[in-house]
Amino acid sequence: xxxxxxxxxxxxxxxxxxxxxxxxxxxxxxxxxxxxxxxxxxxxxxxxxxxxxxxxxxxxxxxxxxxxxxxxxxxxxxxxxxxxxxxxxxxxxxxxxxxxxxxxxxxxxxxxxxxxxxxxxxxxxxxxxxxxxx
Length: 134
Ligand SMILES: [Zn+2]
Hints:
By secondary structure, the chain is an alpha+beta fold. The protein is built from 6 helices and 3 strands. It has helices at 22-27, 46-59, 66-69, 76-90, 96-106, 111-117; strands spanning 3-8, 14-18, 40-43. Helix 2 (46-59) runs antiparallel to helix 4 (76-90) and helix 4 (76-90) runs antiparallel to helix 5 (96-106). It is elongated and about 50 Å long. Bound molecules: zinc ion (ZN). Zinc ion binds at residues 8, 10-11, 13, 32, 34-35, 37.
């Protein structure tokens, strides 16, 4: 179920809205569940950030991401170090799995090998089609 987070610009509350389908989200006008305002700013979830960073690296398709495009031919250790710096800038705890993936990159494991060893329900396994990537 598509879930979107917003910050209300009127009352400052963080609002989580769920939609039955992506089409429903496209047609809907998000409104604050606290004050009813439609003046909401979409928040990018940290899961989306993680997926954006790692799926680009895993797939080797970094052209769409300016921050990562320079790393297209970098070795895994460099990728791991840059990802760690990026996650520090995001300022959120990215979770144990993220740390493990980065740690393995820093030790020189290839992203393809790391992805292949992840459980199918991992956040970092290939995201399902239609997932909401930034
Ligand atoms: Zn509000």
